[in-house]
Amino acid sequence: MTGRVPTTAVLLINMGGPDSLEAVEPFLYNLFSDPDIMGYNKVLNPLLKPLARYIARKRTPKAKKYYSLIGGKSPIVKHTMQQGKALEEALQTQGNIWVFVSMRYCHPTIEEAVTDMLEFPLTKLIVLPLYPQYSVTTTGSGFNEFKRVLKGIGTPTIEISYINDWHDNPSYIDAVCETIQKTADSHHLDIHKIQIVFSAHGIPRKFIRRGDPYARQVEKSVQLITGRLGNLKNYQLSYQSRVGPLKWLGPSTDEVLKNLGKDGVKDVMLVPVSFVSEHVETLYEMDILYKEKARAYGITNYYRAPALNDSPLLIDALKELVLTACIAPSNPFF
Predict the structure, then answer these.
(1) Among positive and negative, which fits the CA dihedral 86, 162, 103, 15?
(2) pLDDT value at position 94?
């Protein structure tokens, strides 16, 4: 970083992804050794790392095939860096605010980003996970890792604000609406006639039973999006990316597509509702896996709205969140 010394820093947190086929297994190990995702308690935590190593080894060959079909790596870090740069440029017009990017399961790690940030004489730090809807498995995990890093470094005398969720932010809602409308316009579609399927990343139901607000917030986002588009009635919400034997949120995207095919639906648009960057869940699952399944189910016209990436409206949403946090009281560390 050059030029002015930052007084306020924004820490963006995203999940991350492997930057090569060789990095797939380490990425999976980091993912499955996260207690916030696996939901283990103190008694079972000693088994977490050996189990994560086993799951990563078992899943790596299949995961490598998926990544090989989308270019041999995940583009999520690149997109997040672009989001960070665009956000910083937008914020610089408002004050001496700088943006740092971190990933939960790959480089640049949260520890690396925080170490870089604390080299500067900051007065305020805003932690902003790039997950619109809160879940302990995503935002909560990022917060917990951030706090572990701070505990290891030593608590700095900086005001810290945590942005828990932004599922109902108007600019975020507008950004998703824009991708849907642009996709429809580019294919000469009527959004009131084509069947729209909002697909969100699933989580095990056990987290919802414990009070996780994720499903409720996803539903609220979809309600606001469809309302903004003219009170759409021709839509469904589904969940994807199930892993393991536990019961997950449903219905699954596969199940919804199969039922639409049975009903004779020929035109479907898939919309990523909880993803703000293109990555394996959009580029492989949505663009390849579900497209093939849709055709097998008799859906002849399959479309997919893109992820937001560095959409100006998304950057507006992030800017609004940061500026609001700048004037809000700080949150306690722990």
Answers:
(1) negative
(2) 86
